[in-house]
Give the backbone structure.
Amino acid sequence: MSSKTVIVCVCGGIAAYKALDVVSRLKKKNYNVHVIMSKSSTEFVTPLSFQSLSQNQVICDMFEEPKAFEIQHISLAKKADLMLIVPATANVIGKIANGIADDMLSTTIMATKAPVLFAPAMNTNMYMNPIVQDNIKKLKQYGYKFIEPSSGRLACGDEGIGKLPDTEYISQVVISLLYDIKDMAGKKILVTAGPTVSPIDPVRFISNRSSGKMGYAIAEEARDRGAEVTLVSGPCDLDAPFGIKLIKVITNEEMYNAVLLEFDNSDIVIKAAAVADYKAKVYSENKIKKSENSLVLEFERDIDILKTLGERKKDQVLIGFAAESNDLLENAKKKIANKNLDYIVANDITEKDTGFSSNDNLVTILSNHGEIFKLEKMPKKAVARELFNLLNRKR
Ligand code: CTP
């Protein structure tokens, strides 16, 4: 049960109704949520809706009769672990950037020492107005945080930047900022995820069943713990995670090039990708036509990226993955030695409901000092958490 408190400040924009869903999502994650509404936001959504979802009295008016003896804007400002302004209008951005505190919402933002996260949403021309942009820049310099609005069709009918991002995305940013452990702050972490693809002709390829979920979970865990993360990902269906530099690749060679560019600059490198070991010896420029005979294709070895990294390694902590169907520990130990790894995360792919496209994983982590850490079956994000707990313990 999280005991953290998020103060959600709702301003008067058409996206105010989406703030209801943000509050609902945060409540489901067990945060204490208090809502402050600007006077104009109550024209769009009723305080009762926010009260029902947050299960707390909603504050709209600075001069409401206090329910207890406390100065509300100060007590909420102190209670906050994070303040989220959603949607943040040009008006509130302008007010805070210029030190104006003239209602409950703006006084509470001015009075808090907690991190403040703005989620702007407004018409494109308003958002791109240099005055608004200057105000955002100024607030960022003071340490206020912003979620970039997305682009698309706006409520007013215009197309362009200014849409409130997905409510799931907004709540993910909040959860990440409030994450308990920030032990990777200052670290540069490189993660690979997903499969690679070996093309055969313009329409055919070989690849594998990797969903990318494990690698993405690791990248997200690293980001949540404060690291600067680069994720090199093969083709997969997962959304680009926020706050992570994502480099999309297709082939082994593309992954190799992307990883090598980042490697020297990284502190920790985690290779969760399922890299193809073979590529077609001859790529056919034209589509291969069927015939009555059987088809024989020859594949040749492709680069072992992790092995190359092991050879180049200086101070980096290097972590590999091993998907095994037999002799799990023996094979994993050999790979630690062959590829000069610090750790290997080994999973038995014969286990049901774990591994490849599943949300759970059952792994054993081995170190180059012969330690063996057998984990229970757990969600991939939890496996990532355990992996970093281990790295933290060993540093
Ligand atoms: N790896 C890599 N380049 C390859 C193959 C694998 O970088 N060409 C990395 C994977 O990202 C993973 C680890 O090496 O971290 C897996 O090693 P390994 O098990 O050797 O790959 P497999 O291809 O599964 O090896 P084997 O067929 O021998 O089990």
Observations:
- The chain has two domains: 5-177, 188-285+297-394.
- The two ends are 29 Å apart (CA to CA).
